[in-house]
Design brief:
The chain is α/β, with parallel strands linked by helices. Helices cover 37% and strands 22% of the residues. The chain contains 12 helices and 15 strands. Helix 6 links the parallel strand 9 and strand 10 (199-202).
Length: 337
Amino acid sequence: MDVEESIRENSNTDVRNPIFLDRGDVAALLSFPSLINHLQFSLPLVSTSIQSPLRQNFPINPCSSLLLMPSWSTSPSLPFIGVKIVTSFPQNSARNLPGINASYVLFDSSTGQTLSMMDGTEITLWRTACVSALAAKYLVRQDAEVLVMIGAGSLASYLISAHLAAIPSLKKVVVWNRTAKKAQDLAKEMEEGESGSVSFQHGECLDEVVAMADVVSCATRSEIPLVRGKLLKAGAHLDLVGSFNHSMRECDDEAIGRGRVFVDNEAALVESGELVGAFDRGVISRGDIGGTLLDLIKGDKVGRSSSDEVTVFKSVGSAVVDILTAQLVYETRLIEV
């Protein structure tokens, strides 16, 4: 039974029981190649049909907040309404609890019925990593061998796995983190879970590992630039994931100035600390931005233009890739039932 038949069969009943998918369920229904391919195929088809209002942020108390990120589509190939619900409780670190928790709710856009409730944190981790990896397919040198992962938090393993799926030439992964033990642990964990010929190690000197990298992926909340542009070797690709406000910066102005910069969507131009700061300081202008991920996929903008060019990709996330990821999870679940 294919996806369309499954959806029609479910639609024949007046009431559909929502499918509850926890973190493990979501992970089991996704693979990095499948999600990368789904985003690459679907974004050009549905990008103009998806409505994504600005996320709403409601303060719960001086430290905590509730965020709502809705989206919906008028395309027959994406008959859904989706809402990601996120709570931010930074004080949870003192309680040994996660500071960010999220749920994703998927509705039928023709009836309004609830179709599924999913772990929103897992949705975010997968889509963030796969957006970066998809951009890398257009921006990374075909002979790239060394990936440096800066940061060893929850997103790091997803970014590593997604890049390995998108860049088959990679042979070595080096993990760096301010807390060396976390970098060591992640490198060991990845090595134990990787069945291919890729080697994993941790790096102690950040400047040294950046200088050896063909691809640098950053997933931190740093407010002090970590990647120094002068150390990026010719032909390197820099992937920036962590910053989402003006005070956060994962690289310096020289990295932005040296690179040909692409973004996941236009929101990065007003949210990213690296880019907003570079605009304000006259390092680059908005007109210097090479394009968006959608531009790359559609071929409206050329990605890497030479083997020596430094490329930069900055992502801040969007409800569009959230709903596409939720679509793949839900439809894969229907097929497997």
